[in-house]
Amino acid sequence: MWKYQCGRHLLSLLIGGVVGMLLFGSSINEETISWSVEVLNWLPEATVRSALSMSWLLGALIGASALNGVLLLIYLVQKFNISPMVLFLLFFLAPSFALILAVGALLLIPTIIVCIYGMIASRNAAAKNFRSLPNGNGNEVERVYRLHHAFKEDVSALALKCRKESDRWTAIYVLGLIALVCLTLIIQNLMVMFIVFLVYALLLTYLFRLRAQSLLPINALLFEQCDPIACASAILIFSRRGNRLNLKMNMLFAQCMLYLDDPQLAMDSLVLMRRGNSAAELNYQSLMAEANYRLGDQSALERNLEAVKSTKVNIGAAGNLMMQDTIAAIQNKIDLMNQHFDQCEAYYRKVLPQMKLRFQLVDAHYYLGMITFVRRDFDEAGEHFNYVVTNGNTMSYRERAQRYLDMIQRHIEAAAE
């Protein structure tokens, strides 16, 4: 999972270098040089003056090293579930921050090497796992989708409106980042700067929430209307810019493909997905497990289960709960494959009252209908399948449920004769 953060880490180091160049490069003067010569008296004076004469390069090194140390510390905090307040306390302790800066400087070159390796490795892994789309890009996803499924052009206005809203919040984020850099150059007081960063972090969280809300109309096409065709079409329109399609909302698109009974394309879209945190990893493994179940690959299902169990969650109690739910869902698919219907029925009856979204209810009713149909409880099976037919819209479950209802009707007619 760390490989998917390498590109972001490298970009952060580049930004840190630029900020350091602007912030520290212009602040090195003769007084600073004299002080450095006095502190570093164990080095030749000519060496110190020569190093400090390259002020812009030195500023970039300080900025990149400081940010590298902070990012490495954040990764440790996430891995071992340490409170984020520890970071804020460390920033107020000058010796601790100096230590972070020193560690960041020492590990700067190794970190860059590891990040480059991680980016290459993740790209090679994606190419290796990309099963049916040789080019491995969004254009191929759209081409294959149009070959196998209907495409709804009438959702174009909705998708473009959502993209406009999303772009607006992204632009505000970029402008806020530029404003933060400018304030960093102006404000000299550490306490004021800390408050500015804290306010920016709070506003950033709220901004990301607004950006996520701008995508809710597309989510609703699947979650509430049970229309994976419309939802997938909207995602493809949303993702296209000019002649290039860089697939967005990969998990939602994969769900659409699963409900259109196309697990292969679901897998291909998931391969293009970045898994930069434990929540994304759990969602990825859950959807891959569903696709492997549709393909009848039990060994792959068990690998998905092991991958989930080995995932290090770093979002507290909510993360542990999410992990347990994912394990239970994948284990349920293994039980279905092994025809352990008692465990499966108990699982669906347990989660059914907790489900709020319409597509989740359709999914649960479909599998409960299958289980009761196998047990020849045709009355209850008919109730479940009728729910699926009534609410399933364009989901593949709807057509299958109708076939089961026809079989039940023929059985009733045969019994009456």
From TrEMBL:
Tree of life domain: Bacteria
Transmembrane segments: 53-75, 87-120, 169-187, 194-212
Record organism: Candidatus Merdibacter merdavium
Gene3D superfamilies named in the record: Tetratricopeptide repeat domain
Alphabetic keyword roster: Membrane, Transmembrane, Transmembrane helix
SUPFAM superfamilies found in the cross-reference section: HCP-like (SSF81901)
Protein name, per record: Tetratricopeptide repeat protein
InterPro entries: TPR-like_helical_dom_sf
